[in-house]
């Protein structure tokens, strides 16, 4: 089974990297770009588990390892195959 | 309008960071984790453009600015609102 974990900065946390990209794009002739926020994601291949077992494990992994819960939030998506 | 641009390493390119995360998780008692690949994404807010105009602009931006086409591939997703 394949899973995707998306990690983004919380809405209330400044994203200077995203802001820099937005300004750069505006300066390159794209005034339509109002804002950019950057995040990361993880494609995880899981073996020998069904979705009911995988989801709680992934939520734990996302919270403990893949994200910093002080400033980031995450979303787990399971892809059946 | 909001858009998401996902950037991942091409399948043929090694992802040492993802491999390290996978090994760490296996060592932390998650042998079910077969592999991890890391990617990044950009949440982009666009003003004064419809989807027909935004998509080609975003494809150009993704190719020229947000990704390295030698080793990375990207996917553009438009969210209507």
Count of helical regions of chain A: 2
Residue stretches of chain A low in confidence (pLDDT < 50, at least 5 long) are: none
Percent of residues in beta strands of chain A: 35-45%
Order of helices and strands of chain A: EHEHE
In total, the number of domains of chain A comes to 1
CATH topology of chain A: Mth169, Chain: A
Q: In percent, how helical is the residue content of chain A? A: 25-40%
What's the count of strands of chain A?
A: 3
What would your notes on this structure say?
Two copies of one chain form a homodimer. Chain A has two helices and three strands; from the N terminus they run βαβαβ. Chain A is an alpha+beta fold and 81 residues long. Chain A has a single domain, classed as 2-Layer Sandwich (Mth169, Chain: A). The N and C termini of chain A lie close together (6 Å). The mean pLDDT of chain A is 95. At the A-B interface, α1, β2 and α2 of A face α1, β2 and α2 of B. β2 of chain A pairs antiparallel with β2 (33-46) of chain B.
Write out key terms for the chains shown.
81 residues; homodimer; 37% strand; Mth169, Chain: A; alpha+beta
Mind sketching the topology for me?
The structure is a homodimer.
Chain A: E1 2-9, H1 16-27, E2 33-46, H2 51-66, E3 72-79
Antiparallel strand pairs in A: 1-2, 1-3
């Amino acid at each position: 089974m394949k899973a995707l974990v998306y990690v983004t900065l919380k809405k209330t946390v400044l994203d200077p990297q995203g802001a820099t990209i937005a300004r750069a794009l505006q300066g390159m002739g794209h005034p339509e770009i109002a804002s950019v926020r950057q995040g990361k994601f993880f494609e995880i291949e899981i073996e020998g588990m069904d979705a009911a077992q995988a989801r709680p494990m992934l939520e734990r992994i996302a919270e403990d390892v893949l994200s910093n819960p002080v400033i980031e939030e995450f979303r787990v998506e399971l892809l059946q195959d």
